[in-house]
Amino acid sequence: MTAIPRLSNPQPISKLELGLGLSVLASVVNGGVAWILLRAGRRLRSITLRADAQHLLTDVWTSVGVVLGLVIVKLTGWLILDPIMALLVALHIVWVAIKLLRETTAGFMDTALPEADQDLIWATLTAYQTQGIHFHALRTRVAGARNFVSFHVLVPGDWTVQQGHTLCEQLEQAIMRALPGTHVMTHLEPIEDPVSWADAELDRSQDHQP
């Protein structure tokens, strides 16, 4: 909060070289740790690790803002730039905090998978449609670090149970390879039965909702 009164009453900066050195050192250390945490968070699908990484990154951006502000003040002598940079860094921290809060809340709300992941699922299923197989009633959700995917598999009615089971196993394994950490559930149906297409009609009606 000291930045606000300094807008109207700029103060000279003391011990500039020491402040710059400490800020640069802190940025390097925090940036390295944040990078490691981000990679681990994405690999483990951990909101906690990603939040810790973003927290450290706010420290990095704070240090970068401090260094930039000090250098500009040193070069120009414009003391008012110091509190302005401090306020900009504070606004950035608030924006990151809001973003983290939204992401954390979404992790507890069982939201659907991102569009990119859903497209990846459909791309995996499309490769099997040349065999006369159809799919519908795709449902996805994210619960913490786990993904859940379910869909109906429509196959020729004269297939044996073994054929249908083998196909469902192949589909489930293919999606789990594409999206590690995903639990896949399939429902086998005969393609000739009109009842099998009931969920397809429901999907189309939902797609056209405003």
Structure description:
This protein has helices spanning 3-8, 16-44, 47-76, 81-107, 115-126, 161-178, 198-207; strands at 134-143, 146-155, 182-190. The chain is α+β, with helices and mostly antiparallel strands and 210 residues long. The chain has two domains: 3-107, no CATH class; 115-207, Cation efflux protein, cytoplasmic domain (Alpha-Beta Plaits, 2-Layer Sandwich). The longest helix has 30 residues, at 47-76. The protein is rod-shaped, with a radius of gyration of 27 Å. Residues 204-210 have low confidence and may be disordered.
Beta-strand residue fraction: 5-15%
Number of helices: 7
Which consecutive residue ranges, at least 5 long each, have pLDDT under 50? 204-210
Fraction of residues in H or I helices:
55-70%
Main sheet: strands, sense, barrel: 3 strands, mixed
Number-wise, the strands total 3
Radius of gyration: 27 Å
| Class from helix and strand fractions | alpha+beta
Order of helices and strands: HHHHHEEHEH
Q: Report strand order across the widest sheet.
A: 1-2-3
Distance between the termini: 46 Å
Q: What's the number of domains?
A: 2
Mean pLDDT: 77
Coarse shape: rod-shaped
